[in-house]
What does this fold into?
Amino acid sequence: MANLSAQSLPFWKSLQIQLKSRNKLLYYVTLFSLTGAAICFILIFLTSQEVRGVNAYIKPFKFFASIAVTSFTLAWVMVYLKNQKAVRVYSRMLAITMFIELVIITGQAALGHISHFATEPLPDVILFQVMGLAITTFTLWTGWICICFFRQKEWPIWMSEGYLWGIRLGLLFFVVFALEGFYMVVINQHTIGAPDGQPGFPLTNWSRQNGDLRIPHFFGLHTLQLFPLLGYYIFPKKNTMIIMAITWFTFIVLLLWQAIKGFPIIP
It folds into this structure.
């Protein structure tokens, strides 16, 4: 891990060097995903291709952006694990599975096909199943990384209790609400109370008239970023971090209940 304390560098440059020194592979995954997000964002305005009434490149943009943030976060925190050989293996798995996800989602968008919940034709169904296998592998392996953070008792550098528990609980929430996404697979859609493709909010496309399971899924997954930041900057004690986690869990469960009942996030 680079020590830049004595150097005067712009914030973005310091962040870039730090991330690359912590995990070079995930640093490049983050750059790749950010580049893909930027290209898809431009394509949103340059193309009229649509999937289910929504610009085809909005979905790839969201996935590229989300994976950039996730790979950045995991690259940042996994440097604290002693078993760096296991971290290198996990990083390679993450790069491969997320590459599969992004290629299929973007390719299907370019063809004007749905990438999720496909029931026909057969090639689309197979691609959806390949994505399911990739994300299942990634989720379960991340669960093992989460266990490593709970089992390890000594750390290479000092961390506050709040920061450590923010990382642990952030990983735990990420895995739990990634698994919640399988409920969408079981019912083969994300909208409750109507078929997918209803009018949605700008960019997120979350349903404005019905329940939408993507909302608790989103808030649960990005706890991975929220909790370490809260633990580092606001809640340095273990107990306050755990109280914060219980409160946040209750909030997401309410979002999930609201979605399952078919209610939109804003009445």
About this structure: The chain has a mean pLDDT of 94.
